[in-house]
Amino acid sequence: MACLHLSVNDRPFAGEVPPEATLLHVLRNDLGLNGPKYGCGLGQCGACTVHVDGVAARACVIPAHGVAGRRITTLEGLGSRDDFHPVQQAFEQAQAAQCGYCLNGMVMQAAALLAREARPSPARIRAELSGNLCRCGTHIEILRAVEDAAARLASA
Fold first, then answer.
1. Domain boundaries, given as residue ranges, for the chain
2. Degrees (nearest 5) of the Cα angle 16, 62, 50?
3. What totals of helices (H) and strands (E) does the chain contain, helices first?
4. In what order do the strands lie in the sheet with 2-8?
5. What's the rounded mean pLDDT across residues 22-30?
6. What is the second-level CATH architecture of the domain 2-77?
7. Domain 86-155 carries which CATH code?
8. How do residues 58-81 score in pLDDT, each as one tens digit?
9. What is the pTM of this model?
């Protein structure tokens, strides 16, 4: 065990964490944050996507100690029930979820894209989300939600 210090959703975290622990393990098991999901465990499905210093990253393959001192944002830190992030609002209004398992990753990936690029093209949005797997078939609604969120952010 080794002491790990990081900022999660703008709150400090310090705890004894095994050297082999992943960031996903710490977020879910030590901090009780259920936004990032365990999907494939290989960084390929996107269900565990979080932001590390504002950049979308796959928490299931990141060693927790590898992000010591960094700023981590999960779905819970992106917005709140009373104050949704524009991407969360757009996903809700577009009814872009069916089972919801991939939704965390889609929202986090989209929010990172829109933070970097205010008005991405539909092709750019598709490319950005291509690594986030969804089996339910809500792809059209997801793409529409990201386009709507971009418009919301541009007019804010």
1. 2-77, 86-155
2. 100
3. 6, 5
4. 11-17, 2-8, 71-73, 49-52, 55-58
5. 98
6. Roll (3.10)
7. 1.10.150.120
8. 999 999 999 999 999 999 999 988
9. 0.94
Question: What gap in Å lies between CA 39 and CA 12, rounded to an integer?
Answer: 26
Cα–Cα distance, 51 to 111 (Å, whole number): 9
The first and second tokens of residue 154, run together, are 């541009």
User: Coil, helix or strand for 114?
Assistant: helix
Distance from C-alpha of 87 to C-alpha of 24, rounded to nearest angstrom: 22
Bridge partners of 17, per DSSP, are 2
The answer to whether 130 and 142 are in contact (CB under 8 A) is no
**pLDDT digits 0-9 by tens, 88-118:** 999 999 998 888 888 999 999 999 999 999 9
User: For residue 56, how many other CB atoms are within 10 A of its CB?
Assistant: 22
Token code pair at residue 19: 């050297």
Q: How far is CA 57 from CA 8, 31, 37, in A?
A: 14, 18, 13
**In the numeric block, which tokens belong to residue 136?**
């339910």
Count Cα atoms within 13 angstroms, Cβ side, for 92: 9
- Quickly list DSSP for 67-125: GTT-EEE-HHHH--SSS--HHHHHHHHTT--SS-TTHHHHHHHHHHHHHH-SS--HHHH
